[in-house]
Amino acid sequence: MIRVCSVEDVPFGEGRAAVVxxxxxxxxxxxxxxxALDAVCPHRGGPLExxxxxxxxxxxxxxxxxxxxxxxxxxxxxxxxxxxxVEVRGADVFVGVRARSGV
Length: 103
Ligand code: FES
Prior knowledge:
Structural class: mainly beta
Bound molecules: FE2/S2 (inorganic) cluster
Shape: globular
Low-confidence stretches: none
Order of helices and strands: EEEEEEEEE
Number of strands: 9
Number of helices: 0
Strand order of the largest sheet: 1-9-8-4-3-2
Distance between the termini: 21 Å
Largest sheet: 6 strands, antiparallel
Strand content: over 45%
């Protein structure tokens, strides 16, 4: 697990990008907790960290494909994204990236 930011760095209901272990990860702070996914949308590379967070999912800002924040599964016609472990320890947020694999 690698410390990526402070809790206050990601406003509630938003996402931020971080590079963890050489991989670009989108970190989300939501009503149901914290989530981390690969940040690159598998459709055409959109920045998922800039997506709209709704109902435990994120909607890509480019063409509106939606992904489950907990599983990375896609709700549309493209592959899902890998998810990663997030832990909040006090005021710090840690992410542990999984091995590179699709969903
Ligand atoms: S790049 Fe994400 S939906 Fe097209």
